[in-house]
């Protein structure tokens, strides 16, 4: 299955993102083999930095490093996929400014919900950053379910036991982008969260 063939945005209503930088994973994936969904913030401004871009894109570099920090010896997004982990973003377009508006997260969560539905065997969600956390809460609310992740700083709520659609949910920090290499404290927490999710497989 190619997710790109299943997920599209026709209206592009969001004002704070660059619609010319819309991207959905174009990889061929067997949905039955996916047990963990890692969800991060937004597509990069430069398409060559995206997770599944050719060569050695930035998002791949930082994500591979995060998994290595967690004890998973991987060298590429292909290796991560072979572990049964699918990586995507909430916002499929690149952002125009540092922050992403709540209305944009709300709109993009519709696509995310459709994307999640493609993977019936997921046992864990890794929510990498505030945008992913908010998006899952919005999806749950739209489905008439209780809030998945309580409000509060991520470092305070990490380690709690949260579930969504019967799967464990791990709120964490953004692992995609250059800041990952700088923020050593967050790197450690990210590695702990990835390790905890991997322990369920």
Report on the architecture of this protein:
The protein is an alpha/beta fold. The protein has a single domain, classed as Uracil-DNA glycosylase-like domain (Uracil-DNA Glycosylase, subunit E, 3-Layer(aba) Sandwich), CATH 3.40.470.10. The protein contains 7 helices and 6 strands; from the N terminus they run E-E-H-H-E-H-E-H-H-E-E-H-H. It has helices spanning 58-69, 77-82, 102-116, 130-142, 154-157, 179-182, 184-198, and strands at 17-18, 36-43, 85-95, 124-128, 162-164, 167-172. It has a 6-stranded mixed sheet, sandwiched between helices. The mean pLDDT is 95.
> Regarding quaternary structure, how should these chains be classified?
single chain
Q: Report Rg.
A: 15 Å
CATH class equals Alpha Beta
Beta percentage is 15-25%
Main β-sheet: number of strands, strand sense, barrel status? Answer: 6 strands, mixed
Low-pLDDT segments: none
- CATH homologous superfamily title: Uracil-DNA glycosylase-like domain
Distance between the termini: 22 Å
Lateral strand order in the biggest sheet: 1-3-2-4-6-5
What is the helix fraction of residues, given as a range? 25-40%
Number of helices: 7
What is the total tally of β strands? 6
Number of domains: 1
Could you spell the SSE succession in H and E letters? EEHHEHEHHEEHH
Instruction: Based on Cα principal axes, name the global outline.
Output: globular
Question: What is the fold named in CATH at topology level?
Answer: Uracil-DNA Glycosylase, subunit E
CATH architecture: 3-Layer(aba) Sandwich
Mean pLDDT: 95
Derived structural class: alpha/beta
């Amino acid at each position: 299955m190619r997710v790109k063939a299943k997920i599209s945005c026709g209206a592009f209503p969001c004002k704070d993102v660059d619609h010319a930088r819309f991207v959905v994973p174009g990889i061929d994936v067997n949905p039955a083999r996916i047990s963990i969904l890692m969800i991060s913030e937004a597509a990069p401004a430069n398409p060559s930095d995206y997770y599944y871009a050719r060569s050695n894109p930035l998002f791949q570099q930082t994500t591979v490093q995060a998994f290595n920090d967690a004890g998973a010896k991987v060298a590429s997004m292909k290796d991560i996929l072979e572990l049964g982990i699918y990586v995507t973003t909430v916002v499929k377009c690149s952002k125009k400014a540092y922050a992403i508006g709540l209305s944009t997260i709300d709109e993009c969560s519709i696509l995310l919900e459709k994307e999640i539905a493609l993977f019936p065997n997921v046992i864990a969600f890794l929510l990498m950053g505030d945008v992913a956390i908010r998006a899952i809460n919005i999806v749950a609310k739209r489905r008439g379910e209780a809030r998945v992740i309580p409000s509060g700083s991520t470092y305070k709520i990490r380690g709690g036991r949260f579930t969504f659609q019967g799967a464990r949910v791990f709120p964490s920090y953004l692992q995609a982008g250059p800041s990952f290499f700088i923020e050593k404290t967050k790197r450690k927490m990210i590695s702990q969260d990835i390790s905890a999710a991997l322990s369920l497989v």
